[in-house]
Amino acid sequence: MEYQKLNHSFPPIWDENSKILILGSFPSVKSREEGFFYGHPRNRFWEVIARILEMQKPTTMEEKKYMLVTHGIALWDVIASCEIKGSSDSSIRNVVANDFTKILARSHITKIYTNGQTAGKLYKKYAEKKTGLESVTLPSTSPANAAYSIEKLLTFWGQIHEFL
Question: d(Cα 88, Cα 26) in Å, to the nearest integer?
């Protein structure tokens, strides 16, 4: 598989009432095809967030956006553009980070969480100094992170609830 130079192709989810920002690294092939976050059917992100919020797992883009925004959760990715092979986070190179200035200035975000080690490392390297906010790295909800069951993910991800 060859490298592709790609730009992030869909906007963040947030509003002025957002309290936390959750950042992934860069959309997977499936997410890029759908034009929305965490599009792979085996990614557990939507199930984890729904269970933390004690809601039914959303299925449509509108339901997903509504669930996040009504609970003060903003969602985006660290990377604005990069070179990547397929969906492989380990292949990411030549990174240009998203600019979080507008979201942070126009919301109530005081806490940033990253979904997985790669997102955490990329945020620390490319964005932390600019935002002035440290991030908390949570275990990846990706199906590639098979070592973490839903229950184990919930023990770590449950901490977001204290800032909502």
Answer: 9
